Prior knowledge:
Mean pLDDT: 98
Number of strands: 21
Strand content: 15-25%
Low-confidence stretches: none
Shape: globular
CATH topology of the largest domain: Aldehyde Dehydrogenase, Chain A, domain 1
Strand order of the largest sheet: 14-15-16-13-12-18-19
Structural class: alpha/beta
Largest sheet: 7 strands, mixed
Bound molecules: 2-aminohexanedioic acid
Number of domains: 2
Amino acid sequence: MNFSNFVGGRWVPSASARTFENRNPANTDELIGTFPDSTVADAEQAIDAAHRAFESWRLVPAPKRAEILFKAARIIADRKEQFARDMTREMGKVLDETRGDVQEAIDMTYFLAAEGRRLHGQTAPSELRDKFAMSIRQPIGVCSMITPWNFPMAIPSWKIIPALVCGNTVVLKPSELTPLSALHFVTVLEEAGVPPGVVNMLTGGPAVGEALTTHPRVSVVSFTGSTAVGRLVNQNAAPHFKKVHLEMGGKNPIMIMDDANLELALEGCLWGGFGTTGQRCTAASRVIVHDKVHDRFVDAFVKRVKALRVGDGLDPAMQVGPSISEKQLQKVMSYVEIGKQEGATLACGGTRLTGRAHAKGFFHEPTVFTGVTRTMRIAREEIFGPVVSVITCGSLDEAIEIGNDVDYGLSASIYTQDINRAFRAMRDMNTGIFYVNAPTIGAEVHLPFGGTKATGNGHREAGLAALDVFSEWKSVYVDFSGKLQRAQIDNAE
Ligand code: UN1
């Protein structure tokens, strides 16, 4: 199947006529489709279309914009199963998880579409007589969005829906590894009645990304991906003072105290560490365990990790899918080597799976390193694969210190029965998301999502915080006194 770009309300090939292939990471014999390998000229056309559409879309009453989005949510809900299956085929994660990904897009669409009847500003008394004061949100213009492959429908929804409800227009470049799920989402928006040019999508590589982050007509750039690329995005966008939202890496710890419910902690570490094959920015890639329970925890954890079933995500018996690509798998394998060389103990896993069921995909054994120290690269760098590093600690203070001692600050969690410890950790972990007695993954759509330090640049998506990325405040003063009144002067005593 040959898929197209969506520009100005029409499905069109790239002007280059070049395409690239999208293949199933669980079985590379399966071609999902070919997609346009777009050029800078294609990106310019999409930006122009979005720029033209902005003038009319911004004037559509927000509740009307919202009606279209509600309809889109209903259509996605109707097609959830098909979209989930296609997502597993192109991305690899197991069906339960791709259903969750589609559900997250539905939830986000309902949640933020409802803002069409709110988009609250403030009214405040004026310091002057016969004068009215208020603030309102205004749309900004063309928003470009660069989205990753690990949440191929959810993350485009996190960006597109708040942008649209606020009255902006969109140019989306999804990851080249998962364009089909983004295309499904955009197709639904078209079907629901989003007018031509309001949402545009084009597939392609870094040249398109560069155009979307440098073009003078783009006002907002929202990017989710690696910290290295996020830095480039920020630099590209700086000369024109674009508003930039960045959501980047993580090295998220689960802290297990000596009073923890160990069975619960085990389940959390399995899900947080190996769910989505460890390919979440929120993945629990570090487990910091109190030394009093360390051995007991590790024994049970390793047993359970060895029992995880790795394979094609369409098979309901499987719990862990493939890595997304050969390149990503190579990265995982190189970190396994790094861990060994650094002197960590390989407690289980560590090898690519190449048997008959795995030979055509990018499968790797779920891997646990123990005896990891906080200075090791496997304890500090984002691996984005099925590798968990276990570190010991002697106290809550030490766990928090180790937990915070990385460049990233996305998510963290603690397992303890002691409410005082839980609250101290909640206060002292320098992250954007924190969990008590739950793993580091599992954020819900109606709360802000994002992180501190090298994870982000101070913005949040999801929750009402998403509106702040895609709107600007306008403060409005209406003087109905009929005379010149000077603030700070005419009302001074
Ligand atoms: C990501 O980690 O890349 O909180 C996104 C979660 C999901 C979203 C994760 N709702 O785990």
